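Quick one before lunch.
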Amino acid sequence: MSGERSGAAGPSRRGVLRLAGGAGLAAVLAPSLAGCFKPGSDGINAGTLESTAKLPQPFTIPLPIPKPLAPGSTDAQGVHYAMTLQEGEAEILPGYKTKIFGYNGTFPGPYLDVRAGTPLVVHQTNQLPVPIATHLHGGLTPPSDDGFPTDLVYPKSLADMADPAKAAAMPGMGGMPSTHDPLAKTSAVERDYVFPLKQRAATLWYHDHRMDFSGAQIWKGLFGLCVVRDDEDDKLPLPKGEREIPLLISDRAFDGDGQLLYPVDDPTLLGKPGMKPSIQAGAQGDVILVNGAPWPFLEVAAVKYRLRLVNASNARRYELKLDAPGGGEFVQVGSDGGLLAAPVTHSTLRISPAERFDVVVDFAKYPVGTTVTLKNTAGDGGAAQVMQFKVTRRAADDSSVPAKLSTIEKLVVDGEKRRLVFALNGNAWNVNGEAFDPAKPLLKAQFGKVEQWTVTSIERHPVHLHGAHFQVVKRASGSGDYDEGWKDTVELAPGAEITLAVRFDSYRGRYVAHCHNLEHEDMGMMAAFQVV
Ligand code: C2O
Ligand code: CU
Ligand code: CU
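Model of the CU-O-CU linkage complex:
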């Protein structure tokens, strides 16, 4: 035993989770490993898994518009929702039944449409064969309910694992890291998650956060949309109702039977974690799904629409462009943390995993009959296109985008200055030279102070902090065009350095900061920190 991880009972996680072979990325990207895998072109980015299922013609399937999940009761504690996590079958590709993991058995999970200031209480029952932890991404949530990666909800078959005394006596549970984390708060089969939502209106999403297995479990379907609303946002004259459309974008690949490809060492997801080389730099698929449908289309009137874009992909980043005669533009009104102070116009929208962009697109400039294709200039093959809007009719439009949307306090650093290095260390994905150890906080952030966190890397990583939204103060290189407003995830381009200002003033306790390339995260590019 190497002893490099506190109390690890099995083989060290670093040994298990490192990239294939001794040669790091060179081995990962070697064409000999290909099979149905196309290596990344720049030697750093993920390759793409290639589908062998029969794929539909793009833009032939209508965009599913999610309907809000109906709440149960409302009481002094908040508004209650119930979700059962279960295996299911989804017809993602026409003619195939794909096995999924789903909140309420659906892919993606149900849409939560909620109000800021009203606590959201989600009762989850885990009927999956694996442990889970649920995180509300973008939520300001106390640590106990934030989906810390070892705060697992065990399924019935492993219910004893939730009892520390019994768990200690269960050998060979190397894939169950809560046993190595004395602070883990585990549950058997069910629990409530309470999200206070003391925060601004914003586009959030929720997803699995199980240590070492988030990538696999989210790929199988454990993700969903959550829109938080408030009076400030409601009062704006932005497009509303049917003209407000969420677009939850993700990529997947399917085998000849229509099943999801995600090559791991142990497909039961119960033993030792470990991914095949083809996805160790990040799992990307060649099928782009929006709200769970492949390359869908949406019929629109020639008016303004508010599109809430969420990149729910494991590792794929997009550069979105509207392709139509006369071009097209996105007027950004909100970011991860809600409304911007003022709109920002983009001809291209760069969106890395877990980021959200709330934009208005005006279809009035297009004649009826125009098709407007949402393309991804950062992708090739199937990943080069996302969806299509078909302008089918004229209609009245009294919506507008005001020049002033909201007020954003400018954070001024008055606390600690820290540096975080996200790096491929030898052949493991690390933060400050260490693989994730839930029991070992990287730093203690001071509650209520504005800290300066400078994040660097030589590779590309979408960096995400739990516990607070932040502001991008400066970038030493690369474009800052997409950094406006309150953020919780930011793309670090290769060789970039980003300085963030962040004030943890919601809750004290332990949180995580991590790369939101889920395969990097699962292989160790995550750090626990303490707000004190
Ligand atoms: Cu979207 Cu730590 O998560
Ligand atoms: Cu998060
Ligand atoms: Cu990364």
